[in-house]
Structures are given as structure tokens and as C-alpha cells.
Design goal:
4 helices; single chain
Length: 749
């Protein structure tokens, strides 16, 4: 009997009117190759479905595909059903439960027969085509160790509006070697996964080994032209992605958008060797991790460099993966089963020794396997772990993200070791721009282990208790760290330690740190520190320590440092300290101590230091101290002590020092001269040279209003040449006083 219908309603009416179909169990065939399964509520539909699928496939063509309709209702399925090319299964409104008869493990749906799938007729993308799954709730018990849906070596596969519930396999849905996959508006939920495995609910795999993707032709064909959109992943170990890596094989043209992830124990999205991939507008709530991008694995068990069919595989390198992760919202919570708690993670690496064997027992060749070419932009990440973490990543831009630390768990042994943006282990050319990072448990931005950033600019960092921006262990900055604002609860604003090398640190604002505003220590180097504003640090403004060096420190404003504004300490060096403004340091404006050296200290304005304006201590050296304006020192304007030396002290303006204007003390030297300085209103002597110190010349200084002498030489001090052309007035003692074994070997005015 033939009946023309235009829609499903007409099909239902036809079944009601012509009840003979129920008696004979012959499917209804309508125009457009639509077949409606004639089944009863609660029955096992395997046999009926098998027959109807074969009939539908028999008449289907590329231009005129078939649809098999499973009516609304509840059914069981006792074993695997074969999917055919050019056939869509429409199960809208139906619930199909795998019965797990006799404890057997079967896929519910699979493309083709196993024998065909494993033959060379089923290779590349040529095995199957135009397969569709529409709607339906597909249920599998946790006791079933097979995936629910499995499709391989195909073109144009659509899975739309389907719900997958339960299952005990490594995956609910497994697909491999497909060109043109659309998974839209589906639900993946209540999936336990396989214990000890990385169990994605939706797995994009690659056929290279029976261990990886069994019962198919093993030729290393990757996925391409994939879209996953509008789906929900709930109560699953992992959401979607890949965890097997075939070296040199790249899944390409992947779009993952507008999906919801809830209560995902590990990563919501896990990518391995994806090229031209866009991940955007996804929402993740109460998940252990957000997005993982991998091109290398330290654990090689799931790394393959060959395929079973041919043995060798021609590896291809990608210098720009073209991955964009943007406009996602992530709420990341502690999960005991997650390897690392984090919003976004990039993992690549360099193999320098061919000493690792992969899952195929083949040696992984030496090479550069780093993640290259990723943009992470405008994501909102609330995290109980890392915000963004990368190791072995190159050419990465992190821009405009909001990263907020929240919900750190007492169960997490690493709860105090998370950073907003963590860059490590051979990463390079990473730009971190215009991000807002708040409340992270360790550092706002942290770079370490031979990693380097290109630029770190215009980020706002607040309440990150260790470092606002930290550098450690041979890390580098090739561009500029500039325009960043660091405030709130933070130990050190900018920290550079242990063999690190930075280019320019400029125009940053650091406020009220619990320790230094900026430190450079343990064999580290910074080329330029300029134009920064450091306000109220509870230790030094800038400290350079322990064999470290800085090119220039210029045009910075440091206010109310609880110790020194600038401290050059312990065999460290600075080429020049110039043009800075230092106000109200609790100790010194500038101190150079313990075998350290500075080229020039010049044109700085130093106001109200609680000790000295400029101090040299313990065998340190400065070439020139010149043209500085130093006022209201609680001790000396300029103080050299304990075996230090300066080339010249010239052109400085020193006023209202509470002790000496300039004091040279305890075996120090000024090898050239003290000249052209203007010293006003010193409480004691304007210039004092004492205790076996040596000066070249003291000349052309202008001294006004000293509480004692204008110039005092005492306790075996020596001026090698002249003391002359000094203008000295309104001093209470002598203009020039030479006592206690002191000498002037040249002329005295």
C-alpha cells in the first residue's frame, strides 16, 4: 500500500487509518524516502530497525537520501545497529536503551560492518558518507564497555538534537577520519567513563592502531571540517576532544562554539594537534579544567609515530596552528580527578634526545613539538586553579581576558601555587595584553623555566599575594613590560630572579606592596627600568641584588619606600640611575653596597630620605654622582663609607641635610673631584672627609649656611691636589678646617 504524506503528522494519521501495518510490521514508505518504524512501546527494536535500515539504504542515493523514523516512545536495543551511507536515523521523541543482553558489550550504532571497516575499501574519507542521527535519547548502562555511537572513514556526518546518557566505555560517541562532521544541539550526560582513561564524552580520534580506534582501517587519517555547537555536556569526565597524538597528523578546520559544560571532572575541551581551530562562546560551570591544547605529551603512552597498516607515517610540521580561543565563560572548580585545575592550558615541548618510545613502541624522533600560533582573547575565567597555563608554546597572544581566583579548596595541595597567567618551559614570543587578573592564589603573571614573553602590557593585576608579575629560572622578556597596574594584597610587584633577562620595564604602576615594588636578584638582568610609579612599598622601591645588573634606571617615581628607593646590593651593577624622583624613603634614596657598582647617578630628585640621599657602602663603586637634587635628608645628602670609591661628585644641589651635606668616611676615595656642588643649610658640615679617605680635588663648590664647617678634613684624610675656588658663607665654624692628621697636598684657597 502506498500513501503520499507531507509530514510526520500525516504519517501518524496513516498508521491510525490503515492498521494493517501494525499487523504485518511492514514499514511505511512515503515520498522522499522516509521510512517509519512500526514498533510497540517497550519492545526490542533491533530486528525491525535492522530490516528497515537495509531497505532505506537500498533506495538511498546522494541526491535522494533516506530517513528512518523511530516513533516517540521507549524502546530497548539488544545489540549493535549498522548505519548506512545516505541514511538519517530520526529518533525525535524516542528513548532507546541498550539492554546489555547476557552482559555483552556492544556499540548501539556503528557505521558499516566490521569486516568492511577494516578493509582498504574503507580508508581515508571514502568508506561512508551522508550519515545522520537526529534526536532521540540513547541510553547505555555503565556496565556496557563499548561506546554508544562509532563512525569512521566518512564524509558528511550530522548528529543533531540527540541525547546520550550513561555508558561505561572510554567515550559515549567516537568518531575518526571524518571530513565534514556536525554535532549540534546534542546532550552528553551522566557518563562515568573508563577508569584510568581520559574519557571524552565526544571523542575525535585517529585510526593508527587497534589500541587507539579498533575495528577500522588503520591509515592515520585525521578529522577535518568539524563543527560542534549548541551542545550540553553534563556530569562527564571530559567533554569533547582528542587524547591520542599521531606525530605529524593534524585535525583541521575545527569549530567548537555555543556549548554548555556542567560538572565536568577534567577538561571540557581537549585538543591534540588541531589546526585552524576556533573555540568560542562556550560556557563552563563547575568544571575541573576548561580548554587543553596539546602537541606533545611527557607521558608517551598515547603518542604514536607510526600506523599499523603501513608502519611509517610522514610527519608534517605546523608553524602557525591558527587556534583562537575567545569569548568563553569558564567557572573552574577543584576536582580530585583533574591533573591540573586551570582555565586554559597549552602543552607542547622540545624533544632533544630520541630516548622515548610511544604507544606503538617506536622511538619519538627529536624535534620541536611546541604549540605554535594561539590567540586567547576576551575569555572570562573564574578559577580555583590557574587561569591560563602554558608550557612549550610559541607565538601566543593572551589579550583582554578577565581572570578571577575563587573557591580554592583546602583539599588541593597546590592551592597556594596558582597563577593568573603561567608561562613556562621553553615557551617564547608570548604577548600578555590588557588582561584583568584578580585574587589568584600566587602570581598575577609568572614566567619561568627558560620561557620568554614578547610583551606584557596594560594588564590590571590585583590581590595576587606573591608577585604581580614574576620572572624565575632563566626566563626572559624580549619586548616591553609596560602600562601594567599592580595593587592590593601582593608581596612584590615585579620580581625577576635566578638568571632571568628582561628588556624594558616601563610605565608600570605598583602600589602598597608588602615587600619590594620591584626586585632583580640572583644573576638576573634588566636592560631598562623607566617611567614607573612605585608607591608605598613596605621595603625597597627597586632592589638589584646578588650578581644582578640593570642597564638604566630612569624617570621613575618612587614614593614612601619603607626602606630604600633604589638598592644596588651584593656584587650587582647598574649603568645609570638618572632622572628619577624619590620621595620620603624610610632609609636612603639610592644605596650602592657590598661590592656593587653604578656608572652614573645623575639628575635625580631625592626628597626627605630618613637616612641619606645617596649612600655608597662596603667597597662599592660609582663613576659619577652628578646634578642630583637632594633635600631634607635625615642624615647626609651624599655618604660614602667603608672602602667605597667614586670618580667624581659634581653639580649636585643639596639642602637641609640633618647631618653633613657630603660625607666621605672610612677609607673611601673620590678619585677625581668634588666640584660644582651647591650645598645649603647643612646641620653640621657641608663637606666632611674623614678616617683615611682620599680625594682628588675639592673645588668650585658653593656652600651656604652650615651648622659647623664649610669643609672639614680630619682623621688622616688626604686631598691629593687642590682645595680651591669654593664659595663658602654663613658657616658657624671654619670655611675650611684641616685637623687630626689630615692633609691637602695641593693648593688651599
Amino acid at each position: 500500500m502506498k500513501k503520499t504524506v507531507k509530514n510526520v503528522l500525516y504519517l501518524v494519521l496513516a498508521l491510525v487509518v490503515f492498521g494493517t501495518f501494525a499487523a504485518t510490521k511492514v514499514p511505511v514508505k512515503a515520498e522522499g524516502n522516509v521510512f517509519v518504524l512500526n514498533v510497540s512501546e517497550g519492545m526490542d527494536i533491533y530486528k525491525e530497525m535492522k530490516n528497515v535500515m537495509a531497505q532505506a539504504a537500498g533506495v538511498a542515493t546522494d541526491d535522494n537520501p533516506s530517513t528512518v523514523v523511530i516513533p516517540a516512545g521507549n524502546y530497548t536495543l539488544s545489540t549493535v545497529l549498522r548505519l548506512y551511507s545516505n541514511v538519517t536515523v530520526d529518533a525525535t521523541g524516542a528513548t532507546i536503551t541498550y539492554s546489555n543482553a547476557n552482559g555483552e558489550n556492544h556499540n548501539m550504532l556503528i557505521s558499516g560492518y566490521i569486516e568492511y571497516n577494516k578493509s582498504d575499501a574503507c580508508k581515508g574519507y571514502s568508506g561512508h558518507k551522508n550519515i545522520g542521527i537526529k534526536g532521540g535519547t540513547w541510553v547505555s548502562p555503565s556496565s556496557n564497555k563499548a561506546s554508544m555511537l562509532k563512525i569512521m572513514h566518512a564524509k558528511n556526518v550530522v548528529i543533531d538534537g540527540a541525547t546520550f546518557v550513561g555508558g561505561g566505555s572510554a567515550h559515549q560517541v567516537e568518531v575518526a577520519a571524518i571530513d565534514g562532521l556536525k554535532v549540534t544541539n546534542c546532550v552528553f550526560k551522566d557518563f562515568t567513563g573508563k577508569k584510568g582513561d581520559k574519557s571524552e564524552a565526544l571523542q575525535f580520534d585517529i585510526p593508527c592502531s587497534e589500541k587507539v580506534y579498533g575495528d577500522t582501517y588503520q591509515d592515520g587519517t585525521p578529522m577535518k571540517n568539524v563543527t560542534v555547537s549548541g551542545c550540553t555536556f553534563s556530569n562527564v569526565p571530559r567533554g569533547l576532544g582528542t587524547h591520542t597524538l599521531l606525530v605529524g597528523a593534524w585535525h583541521e578546520n575545527i569549530v567548537i562554539k555555543d556549548n554548555k559544560f556542567e560538572n565536568v571532572a577534567e577538561e571540557c575541551i581537549s585538543t591534540v594537534n588541531y589546526y585552524n581551530c576556533e573555540i568560542y562562546d562556550n560556557t563552563m560551570k563547575n568544571c575541573g579544567a576548561g580548554v587543553l591544547v596539546q602537541t606533545y605529551k611527557k607521558n608517551p603512552v598515547s603518542v604514536y609515530s607510526s600506523v599499523e597498516k603501513s608502519g611509517s607515517y610522514k610527519a608534517a610540521s605546523v608553524d602557525d596552528m591558527k587556534i583562537s580561543i575567545h569569548d568563553n565563560t569558564m567557572n573552574i572548580s577543584y576536582s580530585s580527578s583533574c591533573d591540573e585545575i586551570q582555565g586554559i592550558n597549552l602543552i607542547g615541548g622540545i624533544v632533544s634526545k630520541a630516548n622515548l618510545k610511544g604507544g606503538d613502541k617506536k622511538t619519538i624522533a627529536k624535534g620541536d613539538y611546541r604549540v605554535k600560533g594561539v590567540t586567547i582573547e576576551n575569555n572570562k575565567i573564574t578559577t580555583a586553579g590557574f587561569g591560563i597555563h602554558m608550557q612549550g608554546a610559541c607565538d601566543v597572544t593572551i589579550k583582554g581576558n578577565t581572570i578571577t581566583g575563587s573557591g580554592y579548596s583546602s583539599k588541593d595541595k597546590n592551592k597556594d601555587k596558582y597563577d593568573g597567567c603561567f608561562i613556562q618551559t621553553d615557551s617564547e614570543n608570548v604577548s600578555v595584553l590588557k588582561n584583568n587578573i584578580t585574587g589568584i592564589s600566587r602570581c598575577g603573571i609568572f614566567v619561568m623555566e627558560n620561557a620568554s614573553a614578547a610583551d606584557i602590557k596594560n594588564n590590571t593585576i590585583k590581590d595576587c599575594p606573591k608577585y604581580g608579575i614574576g620572572y624565575y629560572d632563566n626566563a626572559g622578556l624580549t619586548g616591553t613590560m609596560s602600562g601594567n597596574t599592580i595593587s592590593g594584597k601582593v608581596e612584590t610587584g615585579i620580581s625577576v630572579s635566578t638568571g632571568c633577562s628582561l628588556n624594558i620595564v616601563s610605565e608600570n604602576t605598583v602600589t602598597k606592596t608588602k615587600n619590594n615594588a620591584m626586585n632583580i636578584y640572583l644573576d638576573s638582568k634588566v636592560e631598562e627600568i623607566s617611567g614607573n610609579t612605585f608607591d608605598t612599598p613596605k621595603n625597597n622601591g627597586i632592589i638589584i641584588s646578588t650578581n644582578s645588573s640593570v642597564g638604566t634606571i630612569r624617570d621613575n617615581t618612587i614614593t614612601k619606600a619603607a626602606s630604600n628607593a633604589v638598592n644596588v646590593y651584593s656584587k650587582s651593577s647598574v649603568d645609570s640611575i638618572s632622572g628619577n624622583t624619590f620621595t620620603n624613603p624610610t632609609k636612603n634614596g639610592v644605596i650602592v653596597s657590598t661590592n656593587s657598582s653604578v656608572g652614573t647617578i645623575e639628575k635625580n630628585t631625592i626628597t626627605s630620605p630618613k637616612e641619606d640621599g645617596i649612600q655608597l657602602y662596603s667597597k662599592s663603586k660609582v663613576t659619577t654622582i652628578s646634578d642630583n637634587k637632594i633635600s631634607k635628608s635625615a642624615k647626609d645628602g651624599i655618604f660614602l663609607t667603608t672602602g667605597c670609591s667614586a670618580g667624581s661628585i659634581k653639580g649636585n644641589t643639596i639642602s637641609n641635610a640633618k647631618r653633613e651635606g657630603i660625607q666621605i668616611y672610612s677609607s673611601c676615595k673620590v678619585t677625581s673631584r668634588i666640584t660644582g656642588n651647591k650645598i645649603k643649610s647643612s646641620a653640621n658640615n657641608a663637606i666632611k672627609v674623614t678616617t683615611k679617605c682620599t680625594i682628588g680635588k675639592i673645588e668650585s663648590n658653593t656652600i651656604t649656611t652650615a651648622g659647623s664647617n664649610g669643609i672639614l678634613l680630619c682623621n688622616d684624610a688626604v686631598v691629593s691636589k687642590d682645595v680651591k675656588k669654593n664659595k663658602i658663607s654663613k658657616v658657624k665654624g671654619s670655611a675650611i678646617s684641616v685637623t687630626s692628621g689630615a692633609k691637602i697636598k695641593g693648593k688651599q684657597q
